[in-house]
Design a protein that fits this description.
81% helix, mainly alpha, elongated
């Protein structure tokens, strides 16, 4: 459960940061559909990063060194 809460917090923080960037930049702020895309993209980036991080740590634990 601890990993899930941390992952959710990172997704929300990253999404809020990206949304704030677009809100403060010139032009119209993001609408609901665009905000959904931003949250989905941030979730994908965080989950992909978590998966890659887990693969490297699992490989390191298996044989004592990182996989090539």
């Amino acid at each position: 459960m601890k990993g899930s809460a941390g992952t959710l917090a990172i997704i929300l923080g990253l999404s809020l940061g990206v949304w704030t960037f677009f809100y403060l930049s010139p032009g119209a702020p993001l609408n609901a559909a665009e905000t959904s895309v931003v949250v989905g993209a941030c979730a994908g980036v965080v989950l992909l990063g978590r998966w890659i991080w887990g693969r490297f740590h699992k490989a390191r634990k298996d044989n004592g060194q990182a996989a090539p």
